[in-house]
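FAQ: What does the model actually see?

It sees only this:
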Amino acid sequence: MAAKRQRGERAGITRAQVLDKALELVDRVGLGGLTMRALGAELGVEAMTLYHYVPNKDALIDGLVERVFTAATPAAAGDDWREHLRAYAHELRMLLLEHPGVLPVIVRPAATPATLDAVETGLQVLTGAGFRLGTALDAINTLTLFVISHTAAEVAIGETAPPPLDAERHPLLLAAATTNAGGDDFTRFAFAVEALLTGFDEAR
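And it is asked to produce this:
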């Protein structure tokens, strides 16, 4: 029989595995159900063991933010800036739709080295393309907040029936509802991203 792991003893797991399991747990039970005890049970270790990997609950939440942003950020810093930001925006939206439980905390400031690395990569791409540093940071923050807000609205609204519309009073809205013009989330999202990129180019 294997010896029982002592309280606080380091387990044969990695920080990345801890964060990925925490993300899975949040997907199932929400942030309210994310506790060190519950996460330890998921990983088959004592809750105290997790403090070798994340010192407290805040650090665990910062780690969830890290996993999302690092997965969304293209690795290459030599990309065309438009392609870099476009890929980042679309990937971030998809990750947030897959893990909507992190939406309430995703606006936390970048706190871990890996999250800061992701921001640094974006800044390198933009400043390398001629953006001033402050404008580059504004562009990244603006795009990030747009993606988060749009995705949060998608998750909150979900599938809804159109409101009753009067053909004489709201003919254009009725036509849009009938044809689904302007009703596709992805199309609207992509349109807004391209509009933002055009605006960023003007600022550059």
